[in-house]
């Protein structure tokens, strides 16, 4: 079964659990400085690391991601391009798995071992990308991340400069007209204001534990 066939099948099965990011009481706002030093999260390289240690000279790309969401599957082919662009232009890249409810009880699709296996399958570490386990969805709560994938781009000073979707077409990389994240990174490299600073993040809802 191809990944896109799998995407079509999974999309039908999880449609009711997908969501578009909505505004909330305390979202991170563009231009806000964020403390990226805490907490440290366990990476699939078997070491804990904080986001500020992943950030590079020009900034940091954070993508809330996971192992199975069909929207992640659809966009995941673009992670490699993002990682290569970031590495060439002084950005760090972190994928954060905040699906705490999918590593609880009988549901273990996003537990640490599954993340390590997914990293090996997709080659995240080989790309220079850190895949991090967000225990109890704490970081997702601070960022107010709603879906996977949900992108946050910080500049070299830790200021939030873009948040939202990777681009305008999850179905096909070939049909993308607006590569929001890459465009925002290019603006930072050139010392320019990011033109599109916020877009709707479309994906599967972050699976938090029920309180």
Task: Please tell me about this protein's structure.
By secondary structure, this protein is α+β, with helices and mostly antiparallel strands. The chain has one domain (3-205): Glutaredoxin (3-Layer(aba) Sandwich), CATH 3.40.30.10. It contains eight helices and ten strands. The protein has helices spanning 3-14, 51-54, 70-75, 79-88, 112-122, 124-127, 138-143, 180-189, and strands spanning 18-20, 41-43, 48-49, 59-65, 91-97, 130-133, 147-148, 150-155, 160-164, 202-205. The chain has a four-stranded mixed sheet. A three-stranded antiparallel sheet has the order 1-10-7. It has a three-stranded antiparallel sheet with strand order 4-8-9.
Largest sheet: 4 strands, mixed
- Reading the helices and strands in chain order gives HEEEHEHHEHHEHEEEHE
Shape: globular
What level of helicity do the residues show?
Answer: 25-40%
Query: How much strand content do the residues show?
Result: 15-25%
What would you say about this model in short?
By secondary structure, this protein is of the alpha+beta class. The chain has helices at residues 3-14, 51-54, 70-75, 79-88, 112-122, 124-127, 138-143, 180-189, and strands spanning 18-20, 41-43, 48-49, 59-65, 91-97, 130-133, 147-148, 150-155, 160-164, 202-205.
List the helices and strands and how they pair.
Elements (H helix, E strand, L loop, with lengths): L2 H12 L3 E3 L20 E3 L4 E2 L1 H4 L4 E7 L4 H6 L3 H10 L2 E7 L14 H11 L1 H4 L2 E4 L4 H6 L3 E2 L1 E6 L4 E5 L15 H10 L12 E4 L6
